[in-house]
Amino acid sequence: MINLIKTIKKKINSLIFSLIFTGVLLTILGILIIVNDLIFRLLVALFIFIVSYTFLFGAYKIWSIKKEIEKHFDKR
Fold first, then answer.
1. How far is it, in rounded angstroms, from Cα 5 to Cα 52?
2. Quick check: 48 and 26 in contact, CB under 8 A?
3. Measured CA angle at 64 (ends 59, 65), to 5 deg
4. If we measure between CA atoms, which residue out of 5, 53, 63, 6 comes closest to residue 25?
């Protein structure tokens, strides 16, 4: 049971780090959009890629947590 909790805690911490990093990066991109209108299109495209990466990474982490829980309960 302790191994399951450690694994879940590690994966959730990784997801939290990813969301914090994405939030900081999007804040910086927002400031750049306000300051410089010439790179607006590039930053909008980058924003879309970052949001899609965050959703895919979050889905992967949740899926891996699900697999760990299933693996833990299949041993019993």
1. 28
2. no
3. 100
4. 53
Read off the tokens for 21. 């990093």
- Token pair recorded at residue 73: 């309960």
Amino acid occupying residue 21 = F
> What pTM did the predictor assign?
0.56
- 4 with 69: CB under 8 angstroms? yes
Across the chain, where does the E strand assignment appear? none
Residue type, 39: I
**Per the structure block, which two tokens stand in for 17?**
């780090």
pLDDT in tens, 5-38: 888 888 888 888 888 888 888 788 777 777 777 6
